[in-house]
Design goal:
five-stranded antiparallel beta sheet; elongated; 71 residues; mainly beta; 14% helix
């Protein structure tokens, strides 16, 4: 499954990507955020943030210890 969201900013855009997949009999999850500044029609600055790949044990640990504002 892939979910994404793209938002404009005054200087460029923010792209959020969330994905889940199955590998080696386990469920995996990752979320990434890309923040880009645009100058003269091209990306002039790019920052990428990533949770890393979480297996089902890491997702369960997070769910048990963190109260999210929204799911």
């Amino acid at each position: 499954m892939l979910r994404s969201r793209l938002d404009s900013t005054p200087s460029g855009f923010v792209l959020e990507v969330e994905e889940t997949w199955e590998s080696d009999g386990d469920q995996w999850y990752c979320r990434e955020l890309f923040r880009a500044d645009i100058t003269d029609g091209a990306i002039s600055e790019l920052s990428v943030y990533c949770t890393g790949d979480w297996d089902s044990a890491r997702m369960a640990e997070h769910a048990a210890t963190v109260a999210l504002i929204r799911v």
